[in-house]
Specification:
Helices cover 38% and strands 12% of the residues. It is an alpha/beta fold. It has 2 domains: 32 residues; 328 residues, Aminopeptidase. The protein has an 8-stranded mixed sheet with strand order 3-4-6-5-7-10-8-9, with helices on both faces. A two-stranded antiparallel sheet has the order 1-2. 49% of the residues are buried. The structure holds zinc ion. Keywords: Carboxypeptidase, Hydrolase, Metalloprotease, Protease, Signal, Zinc. This is Zinc carboxypeptidase.
Amino acid sequence: MIRGWRLSGWLVGMRRLAALLCTFALMLLSSTAYSSPALTYYGGYHTVVGHEQHNAAVAAAHPDLVKLYDIGDSWTKAQGQGGHDIQALCITKLAPGDCALNSTGKKPKFVLHAQIHARELATGEIAYKWIDLLVSSYGVDPELTALLDTRELWVVPIANPDGVDVVASNPAQPLLQRKNVDDSAGDCVTGYPGVDLNRNSSFHWDANQGGSCAETYPGAKAASEPETVAIQGLLQKIFPDTKSAVDEPAAVRTTGVFLTLHSYGNDILAPWGYTDTAAPDRDKLVALGNKMSAVTGYPVFTGDGGIGYLTPGSTSDWLYGTRGVPSYTFEIGPKTGWCAGFVPAYSCIASTFWPLLKPALVYAAKAAATPYGPLP
Ligand SMILES: [Zn+2]
């Protein structure tokens, strides 16, 4: 009896202790959830913080391969209201002089730029996988090892972090924020306020792209947004200007390739985007585009051909127009059916997009040595 009481008393005590421990664990879990933002959303897509942790982790794990840069602020950060740095990684087998913020480096540069349009979810994820592929392949895969020995592989995985914060704020059904979150031109009754960063460059910026609530609102003036200043600042530093004038062809010695990832349409857009007039190097730009088309199946268009609209003030026109670097927009994903649209299921990355895009990225990086020919 006494022994039984002692046993049941001990059991009650243990149960209370267990309950207390459970409560404590739950409190810990909920406080952790409260204090650390989610790293993924919508089935696996990475949040801005997820990308930031990833960038820091690969830089720390591969000091011989990765340089991580803060190239400027998001609009919210520039306002002193939180926000993010815009991050860029330079990945190569680092030798003296590599990955410097100037154009004197010896290795040709391939730049992958993603998620300038926040709701185009697949784009940041492709950049994430490209980073992982590169850092895990050195000394393992002969083709990629050779690439890392001879190229600087720059990646801007999230060009519009404020926008991605909005998108990911509804993890079960991402919000369709395209632009940055600059609401200085006023709030919107329908749609989202913000500036379309792919209409805000300082090359053929065109005020007539829609009012402040339009999805293509170009901002109050060219390069008005800190995100635009950040990316133009980086590209201006690392690529020399090889053109004698904007309307002249690029010098044959020009090196480098720039890809900006967008969704959707399954196509490749080559300069110009702002006009149907042929770019001075159009045939060569299309020739390189066709090589990437051969692996992705995406047809190559210029001007409004194929897409039905012009894109004044785009990042790719700006870089080709001011530096002569071959620059392309990839529109990832079909218009209809499985994996279509802005917010495809996360499984589409591994099942569909990555297998198509990986060889195109590898090709673009190889071609960065002689993008105007002879092509590899
Ligand atoms: Zn886009």
